[in-house]
Amino acid sequence: MYVKVHGTKDYVKGNSQGCKDLVDYLNKENEGKELLDREFFFNQHQEHITDTKVIDVIDNNHKGLKKADAKFYMISVNPSERELKYMAELATGRKIEHISQMTKVELERYNSLFKDYVNKVMDEYANSFNRGITKDNLHYFAKIEQQRKYKGFEREVKENLVKSGDLKPGLQTHAHVVVSRMDVEQKISLSPHSKSRGHSKNHKLNGKSVQQGFDNVAFKVNSEKVFDKTFGYSRQIQEKAAYRMLQNNAYKVLGFRKDVNMGKAIINQRALEFFTRQLGEKTVSALMNANPYLKAAYKAVRLAKQGIDIILKI
After folding, report:
1. pLDDT in tens, 124-182
2. Does 67 map to a domain?
């Protein structure tokens, strides 16, 4: 499972003005279809939401924001091929390789399962702000898409196996969510690009110190946990978001930094403990030991077992 909060470059014309261009773009799979065959927007309250309503709600929910401020964000929910096949089998009772193999009733059931999950992802999105809110505090609208196209930078295009713009084979179901920056009462500004800044005595929820900002790591990890719980999915270690983050971006997610002048490095022990809980010590050890700097840091942290930041010689 790959959930992503998109950056500014991913919007048609930015996200500080109206959302019409984005809504129009998300209608690309409806072109040429009869009304009954079109895919509409949906949220936690209803299905078959029109483009007009999406634009009206999002573009009129920005009280207190400046002209240049982001007014809305886009989130994409992207199941893996294995996850899609699992959902398809739940919906149909048989193995499915492409949505064309489903009956209309089966496709509706398949889409319904995914829509239910997307709404749960938006609960995790709300939770990741640590503000005591749920998806019902958000104005959001989601839409399912069934196709993906090859892009010029992909290996298959570069090797002339396919052309840019060709449809990708197999199940490609995913969803885009347009969510307002302001909550439904237009009192709280919720930016997912405001990074979590650790625990603060001055920022409390239910009497406990909590992280400020948006916890993107928790959003990704908890979204896939919801998928597993909802559908009874058995996730392999290599499929976990925590595994991908630690494998591909360990320096960043562990807060690893080097002080060349002092010949020292610092690693965040709390972050390491989080990934150990998610993946198990054996997996974390294998990933850390693949990098000499991380290997030394990991060994020092395990030996010290004290404080949040451990100073290491490098």
Report:
1. 999 999 999 999 999 999 999 999 999 999 999 999 999 999 999 999 999 999 999 99
2. yes
| Other CB atoms within 10 A of residue 252 CB | 11
> How far apart, in whole angstroms, are the C-alpha atoms of residue 236 and residue 244?
12
Q: What angle do CA 120, 123, 127 make, to 5 degrees?
A: 145
| Dist CA 169 CA 167 (whole Å) | 6
Q: Contact, 164 vs 153, CB < 8 A?
A: no
Coil vs helix vs strand at 162: coil
Are 150 and 192 in a shared domain?
yes
Per-residue model confidence as pLDDT tens digits over 276-291: 999 999 999 999 888 8
Beta bridge partners of 42: 142
Phi, psi of 75 (to 5 degrees): -115, 140
Which helix or strand (DSSP H or E) is residue 212 part of? none
The total number of structural domains in the chain stands at 2
Question: What is the phi-psi region of residue 95: left when phi exceeds 0, alpha when psi lies from -120 to 50, beta otherwise?
Answer: beta
> Could you tell me which of 171, 175, 217 has the C-alpha nearest to residue 192?
217
Residue 3: pLDDT band (50, 70, 90) is very high
CA distance 140 to 153: 31
Indicate the residue among 157, 184, 219 that finishes a domain.
Answer: 219
Q: What digits encode the pLDDT tens for the residues 191-207?
A: 999 876 444 444 554 45
pTM higher than the cut 0.90: no
For 291, which DSSP code? S
Do 306 and 250 contact (CB within 8 A), yes or no?
Answer: no
**Residue pair 152/164 in contact by the 8 Å Cβ criterion:** yes
d(CA 114, CA 227): 10
Q: For 288-300, b where at least 16 C-beta lie within 10 A, e where not — what string? A: beeeebbebbbeb
In a shared domain, residues 167 and 275: no
Q: Based on the number of CB atoms within 10 Å of its own CB, is 52 exposed (0-12), middle (13-18) or buried (19 or more)?
A: exposed
